[in-house]
Design a protein that fits this description.
heterodimer, A: alpha/beta, globular
Chain lengths: 264, 272
Amino acid sequence: MVNHDAMPMPSSVADPAGSAAIDVANLTKLYKTTRAVDDVSFRIARGSITGLLGGNGAGKTTTIAMIMGLVLPTSGRIQVLGHPMPEQSADVLGRMNFESPYVDMPMRLTVRQNLTIFGRLYAVPNLAARIEQLAADLDLKEFLDRANGKLSAGQKTRVALAKALINQPELLLLDEPTASLDPDTADWVRQHLQDYRKSHDATILLASHNMLEVERLCDRVIIMKRGRIEDDDSPDLIMARYNRATLEEVFLDVARGRARAGSP
Amino acid sequence: MSEMAAHHRISAHRIHAMVLRYWYLLMSSWPRLLELIYWPALQIITWGFLQNYLSQTSGFFAQAGGSLIGAVILWDILFRGQLGFSISFLEEMWARNLGNLMMSPLKPIEFLISLMLMSLIRLAIGVIPMALLALFFFNFNFFAIGLPLIAFFCNLIFTSWSIGIFVSGLVLRNGLGAESIVWTLMFGLMPLACVYYPVSVLPPWLQYFAWLLPPTYVFEGMRSLLIDRVFRADLMAWSLAMNAVLFIASFAGFLALLRSAKRHGSLLGGGE
């Protein structure tokens, strides 16, 4: 187990106090007697891409949901873009956005209608132009006026990504952004996320089961197991620590309780 | 201070966005539109013929001048008002879109206001044809009730919204397993709200409970107007006062249920 109070942040991801995009301290979520998240603390630097890794039931989705304010923590503290959540969520929600395969866009509405509604909810200026720009960036033009329900899984994911980017968020929370996508579409989504981070200096926190995705995208990886943080560092350093060539092997080590290299 | 005001400011822009969302949905689906008109039309035709029959066989109903049809239309305002509110809310559950909304800057009060506006729009689509059918088939001019109609309507719609708000909270908290409450709760009020008969018909002890419901005053007021030709402003004032209490309690209940849903993680699933 990693002691985050004692462990210095990796240099690439260290951030001075007050500048973190997300600052989570001693976060715990209890469902009756189940500890879904157990005393988790981390800070995410602005402009970084961080992956939350872990098996089913590790607490990734619950952690992200608490950061978004969809789930109330049992104890602990969350600050997003400098504002305590959920108390000051109204000050923050317009500056962030999210995408998850477990949340859909209304199926009967066309892509344009959906983006218009979310654009209005986020008070996006020059909305029509923004939708056109997103349609060009995400290759949505040919089905902008098609009902969302009539799109393929890959097309729907691109629409969901367009919704997540409509307000040009400073902070993007993604829950398994490439789940159930073919490799080509998944690769395309990853490239787009990288481009977006670079062009907007955005912060991205993503939960994923896809180790290659995390290796390719993330500056930093937080590995969770049974609600606790098992490890937290850059992908290279974590792989080195476990003496493994891929994050997938590290993941299996963690899931099966094998000790990392150098552990007693 | 101004920061706090901004924090609590209600945005017409976001309310408009939500109304637009439901309007797009309604316009994209003819079965949804048809459903709004079909049941009210069926109701008025059935009860209208019953009223005609009773008028021919009973002197009282001949004199009562459409009190039965009036009750049917007012009941439909109450029932359809709640349904219009709740179905728009359920559309978000069915579409699994609630997470997107809850994560957006949309505030709960803005969401509820948009649902109220949609209930008015859906009600207009259903009740206006119903009133026209009553006029042409049964010679009952619902709009001839005049100004009292505004008092009846406002009180009934407030009750329907209060019930709609509370039931939406229950569905938020308990998922779609609680959906059946949306369709049935209002019918639970029907016997005590005395839609088709006067309160005096109830046993004395039950009358106390009947007078606790805001719609009871409206239906009693309607009968007073159509049978005795007297507008009872006192009944409307009582109904309004009770509606105010009910509305505040429902809103508080909704917020408590939303908080409970967030505590229990219900917003993540939204399923059964």
